[in-house]
Amino acid sequence: MNFFDRLHDRIRTVDSVVSVGLDPDRSRLPDHLTDHDLPRWAFNRRIIDATHEHAAVFKPNAAFYEDPDGWRALEETIAYAHGKDVPVLLDAKRADIGNTTRQYAKVLETVDAITVNPYMGRDSLQPFLSDEEAGVFVLCRTSNPGGADLQDLELETGEPVYERVAALADLWNENDNVGLVVGATTPEELEDVRDIVPDLPFLVPGVGAQGGDAEAAIEHGLADGVGLINSSRGIIFAGEDHGEEFAKASGQAAKRLKKRLNRYRD
Ligand SMILES: O=c1ccn([C@@H]2O[C@H](COP(=O)(O)O)[C@@H](O)[C@H]2O)c(=O)[nH]1
Prior knowledge:
Blueprint: H1 3-14, E1 18-22, H2 39-51, E2 57-60, H3 68-83, E3 89-94, H4 98-104, E4 113-116, H5 122-129, E5 135-141, H6 147-151, H7 161-172, E6 178-182, H8 187-196, E7 202-204, H9 214-221, E8 228-231, H10 233-236, H11 246-262
Parallel strand pairs: 1-2, 1-8, 3-4, 4-5, 5-6, 6-7, 7-8
Helix pairs in contact: 2-3, 2-11, 8-9
The structure holds the ligand O=c1ccn([C@@H]2O[C@H](COP(=O)(O)O)[C@@H](O)[C@H]2O)c(=O)[nH]1.
Residues 21, 23, 61, 91, 142-143, 181, 183, 205-206, 208-210, 230-234 line the site of ligand LLZGTKA7.
């Protein structure tokens, strides 16, 4: 079954478009978990238990797992999320030349969706695009301040680079498996991109810790009700001062974000 059909079902089941970002920064883990064999896994398991009923997906960012213990923690985390019937979107921002990117794409045997970087062009994304079952979210207009440095540059046609990326992603969507990453911190660009690609679901990061616009995220991020609004630190570290009870606060934060976003959904 196509990823976006599965996501549609999941959104309906939990009445939520919240993507819970699993970015277990080791410097912020609760003290009582640091003696655990795999502290990041111990942390994620408790976060998943507390938030899964509000999560349309879990979105681990690969950057937080790129060491031997991290890879093990990520493997456990993915299996556990799947055990709760929650799809996993790996935020890895992948792409490379053909033989390398074919290796990168093998991760789609393990996760349901991935973020990819369009800078190297279509061939660098082809193994991801060819996977009819997987969701492929192409970076379009990112939420960081420096996102403007390249993405806002005007082409000879007068359109900014991010608009061209959106139009190209639409062409690449031959298997109905492509979405875009557009940050909530730039609501005007969100609206622009939605005008260019009415049918592509967005992954919208930047609500929560980055202070993005939740209403604009919902207004422009969803296509036929399907899309994802991500918060990572705002959910997983909501209970940072709560000691062993930290995960309860994360559950409440996920529920609060779901309710806030649902006010703007149809
Ligand atoms: O444009 C982008 C693309 C990806 N991200 C990632 O999303 C989360 C956001 O975390 P918060 O703690 O909610 O700020 C994180 O993994 C980023 O790497 C993004 O923020 N913006």
